Amino acid sequence: MGNDSTKMNSLKVMQGREAEAVKTIETLTHKDIKRFFLKLAEAILVDQQRVNKISREHFHPSYDDGRWRETREEYLDAIIDLSLTVDKMPKRLLNNLTELAITYAPDVVKQPLFDIITLQAIGVVSPGVFDTASRVFRELIRDVSLQAPSVPFEGTPVESILRWFDYDDPIRIATEPQCDYAELLASHIGRESRKTRCALAAQGRRAFIEARGAREFTTVTVLSAVKIDG
Which of 43, 46, 61, 83 has the CB geometry, 3.0–4.6 Å to 170, for a possible disulfide? Predict the structure, then answer.
């Protein structure tokens, strides 16, 4: 018998109330979820780098660079914390998340997921509500499942979850009324070379991995100290 993380599962893809087809797919793994958080964080870091290169004279008069820089940092902090809890996600939840990924088109999942992570990032929910990957994804499954299934996603579950956010402007700052630089950002991205995009992505990944490592080390050190003192 193979490893549970690579075990193949048969999941029904529901269209309305009837099962249109049964697909044999590979269940999402802890590694896949970690990659999801990595790519989301990478996108936020790339977004900051892009904004840094745009002259402030082109922004809305009410644009507050410091405020939105802090907002990105809040999201990154939340994502780092969530990524550190992925290994505790139970297999059943990974199965349910896999089914969600193939049953609903990514565009159906984007808004509910963004709302949940936003609540955790800006700290408007009580401690412990969305502070782990398991709690975030259970809530996501509940929210999305209230909607009628859309056209099932035809790719793999991993391909689906990596489309649960927009890589360009991932936390939707450019469309905020006080910012309103979506067209400017799109024009800037359009002029980027492939080499530049790859370099930005690599920098973003490296920054996230380093920040995550530092947070993990700090957490372990604190917990160890508590054990010793206790």
Answer: 43
Cβ atoms within 10 Å, residue 51? 23
Indicate the average pLDDT of the chain: 85
Exposure class string for 37-49: b at 16+ Cβ within 10 A, else e: bbbbbbbbbbbbb
173: pLDDT strictly greater than 70: yes
Torsions phi, psi of 168, nearest 5? -90, 125
